[in-house]
Design brief:
The protein has 72 residues and is an alpha+beta fold. The chain has helices spanning 2-20, 50-69, and strands at residues 25-35, 38-47. It starts with a helix and ends with a helix.
């Protein structure tokens, strides 16, 4: 259980740092026009919000410390 908390905490911490440093993004596809079975789409790269990265860092720190400080 302790090792699981520490590993999950470190993964969240690393992911949060990745997002805060500006590397986190995802693609969103929008349908512009659809006529029958033919459609015109556009794909945009969107950045993951910084608040999500900060939340990941805080949760990662809490879980990692919880795993390290857990007694039994």
């Amino acid at each position: 259980m302790r090792a699981g908390l520490i590993i999950v905490g470190l993964v969240l911490l690393a992911a949060g740092l990745w997002v805060v440093l500006g590397h986190g993004s995802y693609q969103q596809t929008d349908t512009l026009v659809q006529i029958g079975s033919a459609k015109l789409t556009a794909t945009h790269d969107k950045a993951i919000p910084h608040w999500a990265g900060i939340a990941g860092i805080v949760a990662g720190i809490v879980l990692t410390l919880g795993g390290i400080l857990k007694k039994h």
